[in-house]
Amino acid sequence: MNFVAPLFLYALSAVAIPIILHLVELRRAKRILFTNVSFIKEVKNITSRHRRLKQLLILLARISFIIFLVLVFAQPYLPANSTIDNARDYKIYIDNSLSLQNESKEADRNLLDQAVGHSQKILGNLPASNRINIQDNFRRTNSYTDYTAVKAKNYLAELKLSANTKNFPALLSGFSMGSPQPYNAFIYSDFQRNAFNPDYLTDLPQTPNDYYLIHLKGNATYNAFVDSIFLEDEFVRLNANNKIKVRIRNSGSENVEGCNVKFFIGQQQVSALSVSVPANQTKTVDLVYRLTDTNLKSCRIVLQDYPIDFDNTYYFTLQASAQINVVDVADDKNAPTARMFTNEPLFRYQIISPQQFNYTLLKETDLVILNSVTQLTPAFAENLEEYVRGGGNVAFVPANKSEANTYATFFQKLGLNNIRYQPIANNNASAQVELAALDVNNPFFKNIFEANSAKMKMPAAAPVLTWNRSSDDILKFRNGNNFLSEFRKGTGKIYLFASPLQEEFTDFANHALFVPIMYKMAMQSFKQKQEVAYTLGGTTIQYPVASNNLKEVIKLVKDSLTFIPEQQVKDGMANLVVPDDLNEAGFYKLQIGNNDLTTVALNYNKKESDLDAYSLTDLKNMVGDAKNIKILDASDEIGIKNLVAQDNLGTQLWKYCLILCLIFALTEILLIRFM
């Protein structure tokens, strides 16, 4: 038998107090009066024996009371099995991810507070001489610090929710640092299904370490949050009614009824509505907005949802699109495209002859139309290839009188293979073939045509180009050949027409399809400088900068917080990796020195909003018969405390000592009263 606090055993010297009192009391003479002297001798003998027995029993009761009272404070225990000894290390991991904001079954505290309070009680049952390692989602895998029990309690008391997460392999890697000796690990988590893989447990039974998986279960059965937003039209029009679609998700097992949804642009609320979302489903709502200038706007979608409210606000930015620059390279100033683009203020259109074309125009051009150009030099092709790979778009309309070798060389420079050029002799209109019905399910036609558009009368064309493979076929002939296809090269696109657009080759330029398709090409050529929103946790932000050799680093700044992301600048584009220690959603300024580049919106990862988690039974089934893994319920604090104490200190005897202490105190009272 061992003792947790053996110094209290010195208090056993107090046993001398009742013994001294007993000896003093024996020396005191007592006078006994009786009326009949004939019975004096017999009564005296009986009283003396009875009195000595009573005093001896009281003495024993008092001594036993003091002994067991001292043992209560000394905390005796029987040592545990040899597989668990005090030489082991102790590891504690608290999954302080945002999902632990869920309320626990205990009143007025969430799962994180429950885990912290619970682990602090466990620390009280660990040997005082041991060092404790604490792991949480703030700490990287390569950080390792041991604490005393007191400092570990203080560290846990200051633990906050974190937007970061740590998977199980990274956690085990953190545990393995430090001393190589076996350890006992206490793991607190809600074990969300999208974060915890059952395969993580397969290797644990082969290790000499002991693991206590402590399951935290929240009370919330529903959680509404903004899953994502997307623009109905990527081109945001100035001074016009634009629309965004907001996808709201309910990750719980109960319906969300009457959730208020508010839309803010800056500090002004522009719309609001109430929405109900069935359990484990999503609902998309439309919100209308109008932008009156081209400045970047900081916007928010705010939900009213309790108790999980970390994901109630979704941050994003909106900016009215600038004019789209279209350069039409054509010999004919009266090309069909000229009539179309000049009448629409969305576009900044100019038509240039091939001889007047300047390569510097490519830097400011969104869409280049090569309109029946017959002479295409290798230098022109090389510049266009670089332009497309950098994100530019090209629409190529063939001519009927170009040299075959010129087109072959041009297509080869652009990386387009298997393009066959066959001019039509004498502009023979009888060679025209009708186009197949419109495929309205093609993403290119999204928000342009309705389902009944497939029944419209289609135009016809006489092809001079044919090809077999492309990135996307937009329009096809009835015979299966392609009329208009999209080829992706780098971050740009090449749109290839099979025939010239002159009337003798096709009536496409006079058809209802012509204008919306050309507009769609031009609008897809326009690219916003940044995404409307980004996600915390390793996301890459791309933003164009003026120079590849910046003398100052790019920073992310919010109020008094400044973060320097990992960054690389290439081809005028800065690639910034959001730092792991950036832990708060909201709007951040992108700065170079003291100059603001833009404002970006960062949101929490939606995985933490998903309430679907493994149950206690699920975890026990995963573990099976593994001896060194114990699945525990966090709500059973007394059971866990006793189990941990037994595993680490053996069988504790202080409770039995306390019971015996009370029994001997009661025995003394009964002896004095009735004997």
Describe the protein's architecture and organization.
With 675 residues, the protein is an alpha/beta fold. The chain folds into five domains: 99 residues, no CATH class; 171 residues, 3-Layer(aba) Sandwich (Rossmann fold); 98 residues, Immunoglobulins (Immunoglobulin-like); 202 residues, Rossmann fold; 70 residues, Immunoglobulin-like, CATH 2.60.40. The strands form nine sheets. It has a seven-stranded mixed beta sheet with strand order 16-15-17-18-25-24-23, with helices on both faces. Strands 5-4-3-6-7-34 form a six-stranded mixed beta sheet, sandwiched between helices. A five-stranded mixed beta sheet has the order 26-33-32-28-29, with no helix packed on it. Strand 3, helix 3 and strand 4 form a beta-alpha-beta unit. Helix 2 packs antiparallel against helix 12, helix 3 runs antiparallel to helix 4 and helix 7 runs parallel beside helix 8. The chain starts with a strand and ends with a helix.
Task: Please render the helix and strand layout as text.
Blueprint: E1 2-3, H1 16-27, H2 40-74, E2 76-78, E3 89-94, H3 111-123, E4 132-135, E5 146-147, H4 149-157, H5 168-176, E6 183-189, E7 210-215, E8 224-231, E9 241-250, E10 256-265, E11 268-277, E12 281-290, E13 297-303, E14 313-318, E15 324-330, H6 336-341, E16 347-352, E17 367-371, H7 378-389, E18 393-397, H8 404-413, E19 420-421, E20 433-434, E21 460-461, E22 465-466, E23 472-476, E24 482-489, E25 492-497, H9 514-525, E26 534-535, E27 540-544, E28 554-558, E29 561-563, E30 566-570, E31 573-577, E32 586-592, E33 595-603, H10 616-623, E34 629-633, H11 637-649, E35 651-652, H12 654-674
Parallel strand pairs: 3-4, 3-6, 6-7, 7-34, 15-16, 15-17, 17-18, 18-25, 26-33
Antiparallel strand pairs: 1-2, 2-35, 4-5, 8-9, 9-12, 10-11, 10-13, 13-14, 19-22, 20-21, 23-24, 24-25, 27-31, 28-29, 28-32, 30-31, 32-33
